[in-house]
Write a structure and sequence with these properties.
This protein is an alpha/beta fold and 225 residues long. The chain is 32% helix and 16% strand. It is built from eight helices and seven strands, in the order E-H-E-H-E-H-E-H-H-E-H-E-E-H-H. The chain starts with 5 loop residues before the first strand and ends in a 7-residue tail after the last helix.
């Protein structure tokens, strides 16, 4: 009998993708024994800065360049092709259809978890697949904003070594919410953009070489303060 595939959905603006994003992705591939980690660049930036993000296709292209040497990384254009459906609950529904039968893990940061109750159909989203909340080592997560029945589904994998793949979810068992301290690279997309605008050398801004070359070629972020 073939084993159920494990696929993580890692969404965000990725404006631009940087070494911190890739470090998180590599950690999760090992921790969850993933067959595939799918980067999903957002068309718009809900819950983000007020200024519009860089063209979604520029961000998609940078992700493709950054992940081209990673066998288990993929880049999806699912949100770019349907900008009228920007919500995570819609994205997960479409990817469940595309990867029918796979076990999906929806990845989010601690800041997103803190705001989860403000998301569109958030309770339905938490029922649709497993979730992974990623934070830095030593960061204290709060669960007071979600009901007790959701807190009961939390599985703490912080401090775990790679290869500790979660067991299969039994028939009728609700999806889990896994906690991971996979964030170790102190890199900010905001600082990358500001560094480019200040004329700093991209070699020191913690982005993959191919991404740095792309930013230079198309003159991205030069007019941002």
């Amino acid at each position: 009998m073939s084993q159920t595939k494990r696929i993580a959905i890692y969404g965000g603006t990725f404006d631009p993708v940087h070494d911190g994003h890739l470090a998180v992705a590599r950690s999760l591939v090992e921790l969850l024994a993933l067959d595939c980690l799918m980067f999903v660049p957002a068309h718009t930036a809900p819950h983000k800065r007020s200024a519009p993000p860089t063209s979604p296709w520029h961000r998609h292209a940078m992700l493709a360049l950054a992940t081209q040497g990673e066998e288990r990384f993929r880049v999806s254009s699912v949100e770019l092709e349907a900008p009228e459906r920007p919500y995570s609950v819609d994205t997960v529904a479409r990817l469940r259809e595309e990867f029918h039968g796979a076990r999906l893990f929806f990845v989010m940061g601690a800041d997103s978890w803190a705001e989860i109750t403000t998301w569109r159909e958030w309770e339905r989203l938490l029922e649709m697949c497993d979730h992974v909340v990623v934070t830095r080592p030593g960061y204290e997560l709060s669960f007071e904003h979600v009901p007790v029945k959701i807190r009961a589904r939390v599985v703490d994998l912080r401090g775990s070594a790679g290869g500790r793949a979660p067991r299969a979810v039994a028939e009728g068992e609700p999806p889990k919410i896994f906690l991971s301290d996979a964030v170790s690279e102190d890199v900010s997309a905001t600082e990358v953009r500001r560094g480019v605008a200040r004329g700093e050398n991209l070699d020191g801004l913690r982005v993959p070489r191919a991404v740095a070359d792309y930013i230079n070629k198309y003159g991205l972020y030069r007019d941002q303060a």
